[in-house]
Amino acid sequence: MTFKHWLKSGSPWIWLNAGAITISMIMVVGLLTLIAVRGFGHFWPSPIIETTLTDADGESITIIGEVTRSQTVAADVLRDAGLEVPENLLLVNRYLIKQGNRDVWGRDFVWYSEIGMGEWDYPRDVMRLERREWGDFYGYAVRLLANGTVVSEAVDEGFWAELQARIQRSNDLFDEIRGIERGAIGSINNALERVRLGERRLELNREAGRIDQAEYERRMADFAVQRQRLDEDYAVLQAQLDQLYVDVRRDTLVAAVADGREVEIAVGQIIRAVQPNAMVLSDKLGFYVDTLWDFFSGFPREANTEGGIFPAIFGTVAMVLIMSIIVTPFGVLAAIYLREYARQGPLLRIIRISVYNLAGVPSIVFGVFGLGFFIYFIGGAIDQQFFPAALPAPTFGTPGLMWASFTLALLTLPVVIVATEEGLSRIPSTIRQGSLALGATKSETLWKVVVPLATPAMMTGLILAIARAAGEVAPLMLVGVVKLAPTLPIDGNFPFIHLERKIMHLGFHIYDVGFQSPNAEAAQPLVYATALTLVLIIITLNLSAISIRNHLREKYRSASD
Q: What region, left, alpha or beta, does residue 411 occupy, with left being phi > 0 and alpha being psi -120 to 50 degrees?
């Protein structure tokens, strides 16, 4: 076969497409692998080094910490920074060491050059403490105190087990404290707010003349009794909290930092303590699983640079699900009307062109529209009509989960309309004619024959809508997503699902941690881990929708056979 005939056969284009797909798949897998290694690899217990650094004057300092990364730089860069570098050196290695102890050193990530650096040692008894505040601590345990009395010395045989037991005790106490604050006290605060709103409604009704003074005073007295009972319950819970906080502050760990100074650390501030250099593989695997689970199930700390991302995961999934419930019926009904009922003509073509163009509008424009129409106009009207007692504090006239879901539904509506219309247009006309010939009406033919056969196309539109909506950030910053949401939109207080509350979102969390964090080095691995989590959630949601679509496709294919 000649080269000309080979080109005409189409084989080169087949190989070209196959090569392009292969390269694309390699790039996608490589990107996901890079994100996974840099993100989830952060939770693996890294070894802790101890070394000395000698300056030009012969003075040496001791460094303890984890080597985060290294790089080779020109010696002139270090000379410009004021460091003493031998003239014969052109390139110098330097290391970014996480030395922690931000409350002691002022910063926990520091670059050190290899010039004057001694050998690296890996002491087995050096420890890393994950704390609720001030980041990680690196150093050596000295003694353990309880109410100022020495309980155990670091040289004692059972010291580490005793420390772990007391850390577990403090964590259990903190869990109990959070349970009271978010559970019982949260319910009391919710009930107090209902009492306040009830009193305010009575005042408005009295001013409007809808109730007389006697009725007003009687019902106000009932509210006063409820408030007194709630205050008494709150006082009991507050006394329990005060005692729990006293119990948490009982234990103190005395530890030595790199320069030998001893510092006191409240055990109640320690989440976990580990000695990575003394851990075997099974211990490291257990630690990795434990910290990874805390990342998925925990709440953020330290300006989102530590802790977990569960509120962001919950907010993302909840918003996408509510958006799907909203956009699917509207998109499907609009597509059915445009394809099956609307009179074909110039006006309909203009509408279709408008729908196609709407899909290309920048997402931030939808956010501005959602802010002005959904929040200020509709939300403000709802507050005036149904929540006047809460004003001037808005209830629905402020960004929240519901308005974020509505905005995303509007954003993805063209995708669902176009996909559904395409599915309806692919249904052969012979099927419609056969149904009508058997005596079915046009409505019965549409809803019992055509629409079920077009269901896979509708699911395809929903899949595309989910993929786009889950990754949006810009419009959500205006209509309901915040840096840190103190409570989830679901709790045990009536009406249990609070669509008016603000939420966290994985996409905005990535933006905030990556570009607004006060500690960029500490936030960098969390950006990778959160990004991979968002990708995995989108894949999971899409796979669920794809499985439903495939099931429906097989169901109606077998039915048509």
A: alpha
**Order of strands, sheet of 109-113, starting from the edge strand that comes earlier in the sequence:** 49-54, 60-74, 91-98, 109-113
User: CA 354 from chain center: how many Å?
Assistant: 34
Q: What does the pLDDT look like over 49-69, one tens digit per residue?
A: 999 988 767 788 899 999 998
Find out whether 488 and 496 touch, Cβ atoms under 8 Å: no
Average confidence (pLDDT) over 490-503: 84
Taking the C-alpha atoms of residue 58 and residue 52, their distance in angstroms, rounded to an integer, is: 11
DSSP state, residue 473: -
Give residue 4's identity as a one-letter amino acid code.
K
Contacts (Cβ under 8 Å, ≥6 apart) of 352: 338
Tell me which residue of 295, 364, 294, 297 sits closest to 527, measured CA to CA: 295
Helices (H), 181-337: 185-207, 213-248, 281-297, 310-336
Phi and psi dihedrals of 48, rounded to 5?
Answer: -105, 130
Q: For 99-144, what is each residue's pLDDT tens digit?
A: 989 989 888 898 888 888 889 999 999 999 999 988 899 999 999 9
> For the chain, how long is the longest CA-to-CA vector?
105
> Do 260 and 140 contact (CB within 8 A), yes or no?
no
Percent of the chain with pLDDT over 70: 97
Residue pair 413/405 in contact (Cβ under 8 Å)? The answer is: no
224 or 439, higher pLDDT: 224
CA distance 97 to 68: 6
Q: How do 262-266 and 127-131 pair as beta strands?
A: unpaired
| Pair 352, 346: CB distance under 8 Å | no
CB-based contact 118:531 (threshold 8 Å): no
Residue 251: which of 366, 318, 167 has the closest Cα?
167
CA distance 362 to 237: 50
